[in-house]
């Protein structure tokens, strides 16, 4: 609020310099152009840009304030528009940027710390600390990346662990047939006999089968392994594999109709063969395989007349090279056969499990999806 008497507007007969000084004081106080006219309309003094005198009865121009003094003079004041000088604009921009920077500094510092922790964790994991996991708490982008890394690290660790266990167990399992093969060859060199020849061939076949199963297990563990899709007649495969056994030890049966699914014929044949060989090795006749159609799926069931499997071991027999407690090395373990059965079943969108057969014996069941599941 500006009072005119505070700036001592000089009388009409004062020196022009006194009026100019008073107008300058008004200009500094109001940031405005100021002009003063005599009663006859003549310009007495002005500070800043002169303001034209608007005749009585006409509306004043925008931003112009008119004050009629008691002695007849007229005082005009026009507020200046906001300055748009580059220096002032730059100052405002710098002020805003500084405020934003101060407000964002804590957030940026926190993100920097989390990114550095993530980088350090990834570097340590790459150096061999495969069990290391990074902090993935929160909902921001860093947490999303951290969770993705942890999931990938867990998959890689599981894959490497299973590969190491597979190689260790395979090396142990190969020792027996190789040792028997070496002994048979040494005896053959002393006294060749037909029985010794059969022993050599049997141990060679056992070693060859084990190596083949190891390679297949390694391929199935690889997420990028190609899939050979085709329509497969499961009942036909079951009949062919059952015919391989002598003296009708194994028989195949169906529901009187073809049971077809979409899948890898080689892998599905391996499922049926492993189930039948497992029943022949660990069970007793009669060995039966049945193929039936189910809603959107097919089921393979292999039963035998052996002693069966204890309830607490029915799940463990699907582990690679599982050997029940108390069973000697000569009796052998379960090898890779049932482990491959489960892997192949899961690869075809199904499952494999073991049940008790009513009346005694074992019952192995494999469910397969009718259509090959989409890759994830």
CATH topology grouping of the largest domain? Heat Shock Protein 90
How many domain units? 3
**What is the chain-wise order of helices and strands?**
HEEEEHHHEHEEHEEHEE
| Spatial shape | rod-shaped
Q: CATH superfamily name of the largest domain?
A: Histidine kinase-like ATPase, C-terminal domain
**What strand line-up does the widest sheet have?**
6-8-9-11-10
- Number of helical runs? 7
| CATH class bucket of the largest domain | Alpha Beta
Class inferred from helices and paired strands: alpha+beta
Number of strands: 11
N- and C-termini, Cα separation:
75 Å
Residues in helix, %: 40-55%
Second rung of CATH, namely the architecture of the largest domain = 2-Layer Sandwich
Mean pLDDT: 76
The rounded Rg comes to 48 Å
Largest β-sheet summary: 5 strands, mixed
Low-confidence stretches: 1-7
Task: Give the DSSP E fraction (strand runs of 2 or more residues).
Answer: 15-25%
């Amino acid at each position: 609020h500006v009072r005119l008497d505070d700036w001592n507007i000089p009388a009409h007969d004062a020196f022009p310099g006194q009026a100019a000084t008073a107008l300058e004081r008004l200009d500094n106080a109001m940031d405005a152009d100021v002009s003063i006219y005599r009663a006859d309309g003549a310009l007495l003094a002005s500070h800043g840009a002169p303001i034209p005198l608007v005749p009585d009865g006409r509306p004043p121009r925008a931003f112009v304030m008119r004050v009629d003094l008691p002695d007849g003079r007229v005082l005009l004041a026009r507020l200046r528009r906001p300055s748009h000088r580059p220096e002032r604009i730059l100052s405002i921009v710098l002020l805003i940027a500084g405020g934003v920077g101060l407000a964002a500094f804590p957030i940026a510092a926190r993100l920097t710390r989390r990114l550095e922790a993530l980088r350090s964790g990834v570097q340590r994991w790459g150096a061999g600390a495969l069990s290391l996991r990074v902090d993935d708490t929160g909902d921001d982008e860093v947490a999303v990346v951290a969770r993705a890394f942890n999931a990938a690290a867990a998959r890689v660790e599981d894959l490497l662990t299973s590969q190491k266990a597979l190689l260790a167990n395979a090396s142990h399992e190969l020792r027996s047939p190789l040792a028997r093969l070496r002994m048979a060859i040494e005896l053959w060199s002393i006294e060749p006999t037909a029985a010794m020849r059969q022993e050599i061939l049997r141990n060679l076949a056992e070693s060859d089968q084990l190596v083949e199963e190891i390679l297949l297990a390694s391929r199935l563990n690889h997420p990028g392994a190609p899939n050979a899709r085709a329509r497969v007649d499961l009942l036909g495969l079951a009949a062919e594999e059952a015919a391989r056994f002598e003296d009708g030890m194994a028989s195949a049966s169906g529901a009187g109709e073809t049971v077809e699914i979409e899948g890898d014929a080689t892998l599905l044949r391996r499922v049926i063969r492993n189930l039948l060989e497992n029943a022949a090795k660990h069970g007793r006749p009669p060995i039966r395989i049945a193929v039936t159609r189910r809603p959107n799926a097919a089921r393979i069931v292999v039963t035998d007349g052996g002693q069966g499997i204890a309830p607490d071991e029915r799940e463990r027999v699907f582990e690679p090279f599982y050997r029940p407690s108390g069973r000697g090395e000569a009796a052998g373990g379960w090898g890779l056969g049932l482990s491959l059965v489960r892997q192949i079943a899961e690869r075809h969108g199904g499952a494999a499990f073991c049940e008790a057969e009513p009346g005694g014996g074992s019952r192995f069941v494999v469910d397969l999806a009718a259509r090959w599941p989409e890759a994830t």
